[in-house]
From TrEMBL:
Record flagged with keyword Cell membrane: no
Family annotation (SMART domains): HTH_ICLR (SM00346)
Single Gene Ontology MF annotation: DNA-binding transcription factor activity
Annotated source species: Corynebacterium glyciniphilum AJ 3170
Protein known as: Transcriptional regulator, IclR-family
Residue ranges of domain HTH iclR-type in the record: 11-72
């Protein structure tokens, strides 16, 4: 049994069920039971049993075309995650999105090597903006959100030189590292507590005035840090 074996980590059935949700999350048009079985390398009967259990809890559903998609039960569940943090951060991100007319986001360190987009706010009145889903997980050493978070940690062997630059100027800028042709500007949130290290950032197709954008992002990150310390 290897270290990656789900039986060694815990419940194999639960592991399979979570993999169903992960695969469906990457399949916006849904999958048939057969397609899902093939993706997971599971017997069709086992897959069908997993899907029926998840359906019972509202975590997935079947369309009229008999394709399996994620269910609305996940939305309610996700909204309960870090409610206090979400409630505090959302108006700050909304104000930043409207001020700059860009997509804003709050990222949290998920593991030692990854960050998760906990909140994503598009501008309400912009005809064109960058779009990506809440919950997206990316490598911590790729993209401005991860570099901003890394800047709050002790310097580590092999880390990118850009992290020191973030420590010096207070924000990170990357281009095309997570999404092609998209520039990210993120600042660390000066707050150290649960749920972990945080960054506030924006995603734009073109950063015509990087200094102005960065100043606004840093101000928003500082404002969130002050609110969280209250």
């Amino acid at each position: 049994m290897t270290d990656n074996d789900p039986l060694k980590r815990g419940s194999k059935t639960l592991d399979n069920g979570l993999q169903v949700l992960e695969v469906l999350g990457d399949s916006p048009n849904g999958l048939t039971t057969t397609e899902l079985s093939e993706r997971l390398s599971l017997h069709r009967t086992v897959t069908d049993r997993l899907v029926r259990t998840l359906e019972h809890h509202g975590f997935c559903r079947r369309t009229q075309e008999k394709r399996i998609v994620l269910g609305n039960g996940l939305v309610a569940l996700a909204n309960r995650v870090q409610q206090d943090l979400r409630g505090t951060a959302r108006p700050i991100l909304e104000d930043l999105a409207e001020e700059l007319q860009v997509t804003t986001h709050l990222a949290v360190q998920e593991t030692e090597d990854t960050v998760r987009a906990l909140i994503v706010i598009p501008p309400r009145h912009s005809r064109i903006h960058v779009g990506f889903r809440e919950g997206q997980v990316d490598p911590i050493d790729r993209g401005s959100a991860g570099l901003a978070i890394m800047s709050m940690r002790e310097k580590q062997p092999g880390e990118r030189d850009e992290v020191d630059t973030v420590r010096e100027r207070g924000y990170a800028v990357t281009k095309g590292e997570v999404t092609p042709s998209v520039t990210g500007i993120s600042a660390p949130v000066p707050y150290r507590n649960e749920p972990g290290l945080l960054s506030v950032g924006i995603s734009v197709f073109e950063a015509t005035d990087e200094a102005h954008l960065a100043t606004a992002v840093v101000a928003a990150a500082d404002a969130l840090g002050r609110e969280l310390l209250r």
